[in-house]
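Instructor's aside before we start: the two examples that follow are unrelated to each other. I chose them only because their records fit on one page, so don't look for a connection. First example below.
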Amino acid sequence: MTAPASLLRSSGPLGDVDASPSPGELRDVLGRAGSWPWGGHGSQDEQEEGGQGRRQEEGETGEHEEGDGDREHGAGGAGRGAVGACESWTASVLCPLQNDHQLSVAELEQKYQTSATKGLSASLAADLLLRDGPNALRPPRGTPEYVKFARQLAGGLQCLMWVAAAICLIAFAIQASEGDLTTDDNLYLALALIAVVVVTGCFGYYQEFKSTNIIASFKNLVPQQATVIRDGDKFQINADQLVVGDLVEMKGGDRVPADIRILQAQGCKVDNSSLTGESEPQTRSPECTHESPLETRNIAFFSTMCLEGTAQGLVVNTGDRTIIGRIASLASGVENEKTPIAIEIEHFVDIIAGLAILFGATFFVVAMCIGYTFLRAMVFFMAIVVAYVPEGLLATVTVCLSLTAKRLASKNCVVKNLEAVETLGSTSVICSDKTGTLTQNRMTVSHLWFDNHIHTADTTEDQSGQTFDQSSETWRALCRVLTLCNRAAFKSGQDAVPVPKRIVIGDASETALLKFSELTLGNAMGYRERFPKVCEIPFNSTNKFQLSIHTLEDPRDPRHVLVMKGAPERVLERCSSILIKGQELPLDEQWREAFQTAYLSLGGLGERVLGFCQLYLSEKDYPPGYAFDVEAMNFPTSGLCFAGLVSMIDPPRATVPDAVLKCRTAGIRVIMVTGDHPITAKAIAASVGIISEGSETVEDIAARLRVPVDQVNRKDARACVINGMQLKDMDPSELVEALRTHPEMVFARTSPQQKLVIVESCQRLGAIVAVTGDGVNDSPALKKADIGVAMGIAGSDAAKNAADMILLDDNFASIVTGVEQGRLIFDNLKKSIAYTLTKNIPELTPYLIYITVSVPLPLGCITILFIELCTDIFPSVSLAYEKAESDIMHLRPRNPKRDRLVNEPLAAYSYFQIGAIQSFAGFTDYFTAMAQEGWFPLLCVGLRPYWENHHLQDLQDSYGQEWTFGQRLYQQYTCYTVFFISIEMCQIADVLIRKTRRLSAFQQGFFRNRILVIAIVFQVCIGCFLCYCPGMPNIFNFMPIRYQWWLVPMPFGLLIFVYDEIRKLGVRCCPGSECGDWAPGVGWGLERPQNTCPDL
C-alpha cells in the first residue's frame, strides 16, 4: 500500500513541498502505535543497557517487554480497537523521511544535491530557503485582535444587554412620539447598558491580551543558533535559516535544529521526551538499525536535546515538515469544546430571556385587556424585559474570573482563557503526565546496596531528607567507582547554584551519579582530577558496561585501578569476589543469592539499577606509563571485585502526594498517562498516592493467590496498569468499562493518539477532564480536554498553544490550587447571581401594581439603573472576594447536569422568597410615604390616570388638599427614592446571607471579607448622596426623604437574615432537603467523597 500522494515530497531538493496532511489522516496515523518508539516498547538504550532491575523482575513475573513483535514486523504489525490498525506505510504517511535512513551517503548527496564533507553551496541554500521558508514551526493561525475584542462584546450576557439597550431605545422613541415627559429615562438606560458592555468588554480583552503576552515569553523551542558547513566553511547561523541538505554539527547541550540523518557520531545520545514522553536517553549513530525511520538510530528529530557526545549529519526535513511539525498539526484538527462556565452562562441567559419575555408578554396582555393603547402596552412590555436584565451581572462575572486569574498567577498559573478558571473547579478527572509533572524530571540516586544492606539515599528536592551511614570502607570504594566511571560533567560557572539544579552535560543516569557524588563527596570534578584517566571503554550495546582505568592519587602507590559500571548481571558475571565491609570475599553462591534478592527488590520498585566493580592492577604487570589498548584489550575485564548496586529513579515532587490526597478528598480522580515503563509508572503512582496503599492490580492478586491472571475477577482489582500494546488491542467499550471498573488507573507506554482516546473515553462517561502535558505529543489531548494544562518550564510551544492554562513551575500541586480556586469562583458566582436576581422582583412588582392596580408608579427606570449599576454592583462584585467555605475541598465535583449556575430552586428562592420579602418592604415604605403626605393606600388604587394627567392641577388627597401636577411629580420622585432606599436596605441583609451557601454567616464571619464591608458602607453612602445631594431632583429624580422612611425596611432585612439562617440550619441538619437545593451541598453533591475514588 502506498501513502497518499499529498503526503509525499519530491525526491529532489527543489521539488514541490508536500502539503500538510489532514487532521483525520494524521489522527489515523498516530493511532498506529506499532511503528512509534513509544507505542508499546522501551527505548533502545533501555533495552540494550540492561541496567533495569525491572527487566529482571519481568522475567520472574512472566511479563515481557512490550513491542517485541512489532520490532520483528516493523510497521506492519496489526492491532484493532480504540487506537486502530498498524499498516506498513505508517511512517511514510506520518513523515516525508521515506527511506532517507536507508540510503547510502552517496545516494543522500545525490538526492539533496549536497556534499557530506562540504555541505550545500550558498546559492542553493538561498534558493531552498526561499522555497521552503524558515526552519520553524508555523504558529497556529492567530485570531485577529479585533475578533478577540468583538467576542468580548458578543457573549451570552452581552447579547442580552445589547437587546435590552435596543428595547430601551425603541421605548424612548415610542414615548417621545407620545410627548411623555419621562422619555429621557429610557435613553439614559440604553446608553448605560451600552457603556457597561463596552467597559467590561475592554476589561476582559485586556486580561486576555496580558495572558497572551506572558505566554509569548516562553518561545524557546527552536534553538537560536546552529553550526552549519556550507561550501566547506564551518560557521554558525540562526537555526531558522537551515534548509534540507545542510550539513550540520551538534554536541552535548544543543537542541537538534531539524530532522537530521546522522553521518558521524561519537557517543551521541539524545532526549526524545518532548516528542515521545520517554525520559530515557537514546543513542544516535550512523548505522540504520530499523526499517522504520521513527525507530532507527541514524535519524535525530527536530527540537530534541542532544545530551552528550557529538554528531554530524544532513538536514532532511525542516519546520512543519519535521516529525514534531506533523504531530503539532494534529492539535489544529481538534475542535475546542465549550467551557462549562460558558454553557452555564448560556443556560442562565436562556432562563432570564425566557422569564423576561414571559412576564413581559403577560403584562402586555393585561395592559391591553384593561384598556391601554397598543403603544403604551408595548412600553410596559419593554420596561418589564429591561427590568429583568441583570445589568450588573456582566461586570460581576468578568471581575470574578479576572480576580481568580490574578490569584492563580500569583501561584504560578497563567490562565489563557478566563473561562478555564471555573472549568478547573468542575474537574472530576485529571489525566496527568508523569515526568516533570508528578516527578522532578531529574534522575536521582534513590537506593544503594553494599555490605549486604539496601541503603536509602536522599531524593528530596531540597536535600532535607535523611542519609545513610557513610563510614564503611565498602561505601568509599563504591563512591570512588561511581565518581570515576562517569563521563558527565558540570557546566562551568555554577558554583553558586544548588547541586540538584546544576546543568550537567551527560545522560540522565550519569547526571544522577555525578550529582550524588557531588553531594556526598563534595567537589566531584576535583576528585576525578586526583585520579587521572588513562584508558576508557564507553558504554555500548554489545558489552553493556562502561570501563575506565585510572592512576591512584597517592604518588607513592604506582598501581592503576580499573573501575566498571553497567548492567548488574553483566557486571556480576565479570566478578570473582565481592567487597564486604572493606574486605574482599569470594563471590560464592550465598553472595550471588544476596545480589539477586537485592536486584529484584530494587527492580521491583521500578528503578534503574546499575552494578559497580573495581580491580587494582598489579604494578609488575601494568607499570606506570603502560600503554593500555582498548582494541587489543591488553588488560583484564574479569576477575573483578563487585562493590555494590546503585538504583536511580525520577523521584516524585515533594508536594505531589499531598496534592493527590487533596484530589481524593475532593472526589477528583487522578489518572497517570505516561510513556514510561509500566513498572516504573506503577511505582511512582503508588508513591504519590494515585494507587493507594493496599490497592492491588489483577497481576498482584494473581501473584498473591498463585493463580493465572485470567482466573482473577478483574472487578476485584481496585487498581489497573494498562500498557500501550494492551490499549491498542482494546475496543472503545472495553476501555470505558476498565475506567468504570477500576478507580485507580495508570496508563504506560502510551502514544499521543492513545492519550487522546483516554481523554475521550473519560468524557464519554460524563467526566470533566483536565489533562497535563509538556511535549508536542501531548498537544492533541490538551486541545481535546475540557481544560488543558501545559508546563511552563519543560513545555513545548505546541503544548502551550493547545493548553488553556500554563503552570510556570511545572508543579502538579498548582493544579490542585486551581481546582480550589475554580470551585470557589463557581460558589461565589452563584452567590453573586442569587444576590443579583433577588432585586428583580422588587424592581418588577412596582410595574405589576402600576398596571393592574393603577397606583402611581412606585419606581422609575433611572432609579432601577442606579440600583443595577451603582449601588448593587459593588456588593455583588465583593462576593468574588469571599473566602472559601471550610468544606469546599471535601465535596464531590459538581454535577454539570444537576448543579447549574442558575437552577429552578435558586431562582425560586431568590425570586419568590427573599425577593417577595423585599417587595413587601418596598411597598410598605411606599404606602407609608404616600400616607404621611396625605395619600392613603385605598385612595391610591385607581389613582394613576388622574395622577399622570398633567392638565389636572387640583387633584385632592385623602385630606382634601389639592395637588398640582408639579407637586404630584415631586411626590412621585420621593416615592422612587423611598422604594430605592427600601431595596438597598434589604439588599444589605441579602448580601450578608449570600456570604455562605451552607454554613452560618456567623461561622464564616462578618468581617473576614473586608471588601464586602467596604462595599456595604459605600452602598449606604451612595444612597445618602443620591438622596441629599443638592441638584439630584433635577438630574436623576432623587429627592430628600425623612429619616423614618429609612427605618421602615429594617425589620424586613432582619426577617431575611433570620429566615436564611433557619434555612441553612436545615441544610446542615438535613442534607439533600428541598430547602438546600440552591446550596453547595446539592450543587457539589452534599455527600462527602467516600474513601474510595468515585466512579466517573
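Example two begins here.
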Amino acid sequence: MAWVGKKAASFRLKTATRTDRRVRFMNEIIQGIQVIKMYAWEHSFSRMVDSIRRREVAGIRGTLFIRAGLLSFNLVSRLSIFLSLVGYCYFGNVFTAKKVFIVTSYFNLLYSSMLHFWPLALTSVAEGLISIRRIEEFLLLPERKLLDPKPTANGNHEGESELKLLDGVKMTNGVAAHDKPLKLMSVVARSKRFVNKKGFARRGVFMKNGTACWNKEAEGEHVKGKVTGIRDVTLTVEKSKLCAIVGPVGSGKSTLLQVILGELELDEGRLEISASAVSYAPQEPWLFEGSVKNNIVFVEDFNEKRYKEVVKVCALERDFQLLPLGDETIVGERGISLSGGQRARISLARAIYRKADVYLLDDPLSAVDTHDKVCVLVTHQLQYLQDVEHVVLMNGGAIEAQGPYRELQAANAYPLLATLAQQQAARLARESEQQRDQLEQYVDGEGAAQAGEGEDKPLIASTVPRFTVDRIHEPSPQPPAMPPAHRMAHSHQSLYQPSPFSSCSMVFDGFDDGDGKLQNGGGGGKAGVPQESTKESQITGTVGFAVYRSYFRAVESAVLVTTVGLLFLLAQGTMSGIDYFISQWVNQEEFLSQNSTNSSVPVRSKLEGTVFAELTREQYLVTYAGAMAVMLCLSLNRSFSFFYLCLRASIRLHDQLFRGITRATMFFFNTNPSGRILNRFSRDIGCIDIFLPSAMMDCILFFVEFTAIISLVAVVNYWLLLPTAVMGVLFYGLRHVYTNTARSIKRVEAQTRSPIFSHANASFQGLTTIRAFGAEKILAYEFDKHQDLNTSAWYLFLAATRAFALWLELVCVLYIATVTFSFLLMENTMSGNVGLAITQVFNLIFMCQWGMRQTAELENQMTSVERVVEYAEVEPEPPLETMDEKKKPAADWPNEGAIKFEYFSLRYSPGGDLVLKDLQLAIEPKEKIGIVGRTGAGKSSIIQALFRLAVNEGIIKIDGLDIGGLGLHDLRKKLSIIPQDPVLFSGTVRENLDPFGQHTDEDMWRALEQVELREAVRRMDGGLDGKMSDGGSNFSMGQRQLVCLARAILRNNKILILDEATANVDPETDKLVQRTIREQFGDCTVLTIAHRLHTVMDSDRVLVMDAGRAVEFGHPHQLLKQRKGFLRKLVNQTGEETATELAAVAETNYRQRSSARDS
C-alpha cells in the first residue's frame, strides 16, 4: 500500500505540473486569440496543445489505472471469505449459517474500512502532500525584502546593522514596498556603503554604480553582447527636475525603472530614494474591470477638484464625451470599451492623480513639468527632450551620457538629438501661457487619439502646454479622515463596485488600435461595442440526459461503451450468484448435518429437486473456485476498461472544448472574461479528468449492487419488497431534495470560481503597478472576498452532503431492522436464506450512504461536462476552408493586391449597430494607403472587415474575388498584419516565427537580419530554438514588434496591414521598420492604420474615416487643399509647425509621383 501511495503521488505531481503548463499556455492563447486567428494559426496551436495534453494525459492515465488497481482490492474481502470457507471445509468442518455469515459479515465490515477507505486515504494523503509541497516551494521563493536603514539626524547611515522594518516605503537590495509615508530610504547591495552626508533633501533618486540582472545565471554576460539588465549605473535625479531616459530598443530603460520600483534587486551599488509615495505609469497600460473613474482614482480618496484637473490635463474630456456613460463607462476585459489611446491616457491620469513625490513614467505619451517633485520619464519620442532638465542616454544596459539637453546636443552625444535643434527653437518661441490654459482645444478630434498611440506630436508638451504636477497637488478640501478599516472598505468598494453594470472580476488588457479594439473596432464610440462583459449564464434544473449522452458520445466507440456495460452486469451477476450459491451450500450442509444426527426422523430437504441437492462437497468447492476465478477476471477487466473509457471521453471533451473556443467568434471573446473561459480548461477539465471517473464508477457499482441485493432479498422473502419500496421512495425523496440543493450550490461554486481566475490573472498582469501604488492589501482584500465567496459555496456544499449522509443512514438502519424482524414472523425459513438476506442488507449501511452521495456527486461533476459542452458548442466562425472547390482561390492569389469595397457595412454582432456604413472605395494594386480618423471613426474596423472577424454585410473583393465566399484560412493566410501590440507566445523563436515549419532556417535568419534581430537571437541559448518566456517577456516591447515584422516578411503576402507598428519603438527602430517596409513590401498593397499623421503623409492616398463612413479618399496633398476638409482639420490640430511639416511632406511626395507618372 505504501508503494501504491508513493506511486500515486508521483503520477499526481507529474500531472499537476503538466496541467499547470497546459493552463498557462491556454491563457496565452486566450489572450492572443485575435492574433492567432488573423495569422490562421489555429491548427498549429492545436498541435502544440495536443502535445502538452498528451504528456498530461500520460500522468492522468497512471493515476486512473492505480485507482482501477485499488478497486481490485475490493475483491480481497471476497477472496478472504473464499479462503476461509475453503480452509474450514478442508479440515472437515460442517458449514452452518451462524459460522458462515458471521465470517461473511466480518469481512464485509473490513471491506468498507480497510479495503475502500484505506486505499482512498493513502492516495488522498499522497496527493495532499504533493499539493502542500508545491505550495511550500512557492512560499519559499525569494520575496521582496522590507528592511530599511534608520537614518541619522544628519542624514548619515551609521551602519548596516541598524537596518530595521519600517511602516513606510521600504527598500533594500534594490527592492521596494510602499505603504505609509517615510522621508528617506536607502539601499545597499553586497555590503557596499555609500554615505550621504549632505544634500539628500535635494535628491529624489540617487543611484551609484548600480548593477542588476534579470537572469542571475546570465550575470556577467554583457561582454558577450547580452543585455539582461543594467550595469554600473550612476544617476542622480533632483527634486523639481524632470529626468528623461532615452535610448534604443533593449537598452535597459524600463529595467532601470524596475530597479527604482524595487521589482529588480541591485546586485551591486547603492540606491537612495526620498519619497513618501511613488507613482508609476507603465508602458503597457494596465486597467481593471470597473468604471473609468475608478481606474483613475484607484486606491486614492476621491477629490472632485483634483479629479477634474487631472482629466483635463490628460486630455480625457473629449473621450468622456464619446464614451456612452462618460467616466462611468465600464472598462471591460481586454479594454473592450476603450481605444488604445484612451487606455494609455487613463493609465497616465492614474499616475498623476496619485499624490506622490516620485513619478516614474514608462513611455506614457508626454513630458511632465514638476515642482518639488521627482519625475523620471522613459520615452522614445525625442521631441519632448527640449522640455527636460536632465537627459540620460542609455545603451547596452549602461549610461552613455547624461546631462542637460542642450549640453548633450552640443556635444553630439546622441546623433538623433541634433535633428531636433531647429524644431526646439521654433516651438519654445510659440509656447504661451494662454496655450497652457486651453488644452481642451487640442484634444478635440484626432489629437487625443493620435497621442494615445504615441505619435510624434506630444499630448502634454511642446505645442501643447506642459502641466505642473505641483499645481494639481494644491491643497483642496478633503473628506473627513476615515479610520484604517473604513478606508480599506472604501477603497475596496471603489474597486469592486464601480457601477451597477460592473463585474467584480479584474481583467487583462488586450489589443488596441486607437479607435477601438482590434476585437471590436471603434471601441471608443457609442455603437457596436459591448460596454460590459456578459454575465455568466447559470443553467438551472437537473443535468439533462443530453449531457450524459454527450459524455459517452465523446468516447467515440459504441462497442467500448457496450462492452464496459456488459462487464459491469456480468461481474455483479457473478458476485450475487456466488452469494446465493453460498447460502444454498449452507442450507444443504445443514440438511445433511441434521440427517446424520437425527437419522431416526429423516428430514425432507427443501432443496430437493434442485441442482444444489445433487452436488457433493467437492463439487461445491470446485464450482465455488471456478466462479471466483470468473468473477476476478470480469472485475479486473471491468475496472480497467471503464477508466480507459473515461480517459478517452476526457481527451475528446478537451479537444472539443479547444476546437470550440478557437473557432468561436471574436464577439464571444469580447463578451466573456478570460477567467471564465480559462475556468473551463482548468477546473472543469480537471474534474472530468480526475474526479468524474471515480464518481461515475461508484454510481454504476452502487446501482448494479443495489439492484442485486434487492433481488436476492426478494428471492428469500418476496414480502420484503414492501419495505424495500418504502425505502426506495424515501431514498428518492432525500436524493431529490439534496440534488436540487447541491446542484445549484455546485453551479454557484463554479460561477464564483471564475472571478478568482480573472482577478488573479489581472493582478499578475498589473503586479508592478499594484506594488508601485501600494495596492497590495486592497487587491489582496478584494481577492479574499472572491475566495471567501467561493469557499462559502463549497462549505455549504459539504454541509449539505453530510446532512444527506445522516438521513440516508437513518433510513438504512430502519430498513435493516424491518428485514431482521420480518424473519421472526416467518415459519419454515432456511437459516442460509436468513443469513443471506441479513448480510446483504447490512451492506446497505455503507453502500447506500456512499452510493447515494456519489450519485449526487456524479450529477455535480457532470455540471463540469455541461459547462464544457456549452463552450464546445458556441457559435463558430464561418468554415476555415472554402467548401466550394470552384470558389477556392489559386495558390498564387492574390497576385496583384487590388481591394474593392462595394456597399460594405460591418457590425460586431448579429443585430448590433453598424460600425462601418456603406463603404464604396477601390484600392489599386501596390498602393500605399493611409487610414486616419478620430477616435471611434472605424479605422481598425476595416481590419475586422478584411480578416472577417466580425459580421460583414456587402462585398469586399481582392483581385476580383469576393472574400465572403472563401474559407477563413484561405483568406487570412494571404494577408499579413503587424499589430500595434506585438503578441508573442511561450515556446521557441522558431515557433513564434513559423509555427507550421514552412520556412527554412536560412529564410528565418534572413528575416531576422532584415529587422536587425539576428545577433540578439543568435546569442540566445539555442538560437532559433531559444526559449521565449510567456508573452515574449524576455524581449523588450520594441524587439517584440520587430519579431512581428519578421513574421510578415516570412509570409511574403501581397497585402500588408500595419496597425501603427512603430508606436512603441525608438526613432532609430522606427526608421528601420519604415525602411524595411519600403524595401520588402515595395510591390505590395500596404494599408496603414495611422495614429501618427506623419506615417501616412507620404502615402499614395489617404482614407479619412468618420463615424464609420469614408468621408475623404485621395492623395494627402490634394485633400489638404480643401479648406473644410477632414484631413486638413486633423492636420491643423497638430499645431502650426507640425501642420506645415506634414503639408510639405505630402506636397513633396505628390510632386515626385507626378514626375514619375509623367516620365
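Residues 699 and 828 are 37 Å apart (CA to CA).
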